[in-house]
Amino acid sequence: MLVAVSGGADSTALLQAACFVGPRLGLAVGAVTVDHGLQPGSAERARQVARYAASLGAEPVTAWHVRVEGPGGPEGAARRARHAAYAGAAGATGATAVLLGHTRDDQAETVLLGLARGSGTRSLAGMAPRAGLLRRPFLTLPRATVRQAALLADPATPGWDDPHNSDPRFARARVRGRVLPVLEAELGPGVAAALARTGDLARADADALDEWAEREEPRHTRGPGDLDAVGLSAIPAAVRARVLRRAALAAGCPADDLTAGHVSALSVLVRQAPEGAGTDLPGGVRAWREGGRLLLSRTGGRP
How many domains in the chain? Predict the structure, then answer.
């Protein structure tokens, strides 16, 4: 397994724990650090992190240099680049898991940001403990506990903090430095734990609804971009929305541009719209109601 190490205290604590526990469980522990190239000296920082990982016995240790670009703002673009590097490092080393050092406080921030976006249950679900190659073993632990453990394990633990984590230009930094402290002060301690617990509950609900939608989709799909509007109108709204989102993505809508508002418009077409009514979706996709069906097309849509 590989430990993703940024050089911050949380991921360093995870590296220490993995290098201690891994060999006792018969597991090979390596490390990967990612240089986003966003700050002066980032390449040297990546080399320092790699040397520290090697000093703890991690093998192999790899440093990946990525370009942060594309849609979703700098935070989203950096996350995509970082996760692509993790997948590349796992493939190159034969690792079957990549461990990330996210804590309960990170989860609380993610849930609060999802609540602000108003994107539904999945957005409130936060980060999953397991997602493909990724594992987050510290997700139920407070950040303070993780950092204390790191210092107890090694009083000389390097604890570099990414300046972006306190840069108010970024939404997560504002939530961490301003919003959560105010909530804790005004509502009492335990807000972070409650938010993380909300994420767990929302994830369980979202997973169940996704599974339900997967079962319903073939029952109401006649072909690519051709759905049974009458049948869809009879199933619960949360399940219908998931089926419609999947259909829109299959028709060519970019996932980053497809909003809850677009899916709601599709639901209106299914349940209330007269024959011939339609709506435009991202990616040049057109959806319209015809003969009791919902049709979606990029090239053959009606005006």
Answer: 2
pLDDT, tens digit, 9 for 90 and up, residues 250-283 = 999 998 789 889 999 999 999 988 888 999 999 9
- In the chain, the amino acid numbered 38 is L
What's the rounded Cα separation, in Å, for the pair 225 and 236? 21
The strand order across the sheet containing 221-223 reads 221-223, 226-228, 293-297, 285-290, 278-281
Q: How far apart are CA 70 and CA 160, in angstroms?
A: 27
CATH number of the domain encompassing residue 257: 3.30.465.60
The residues near 303 (Cβ < 8 Å, ≥ 6 apart) are none
- For the stretch 166-185, pLDDT in tens is 677 788 889 998 999 999 99
| C-alpha dihedral, 212 to 213 to 215 to 216, nearest 10° | 120
**In this structure, is residue 274 part of a structural domain?**
yes
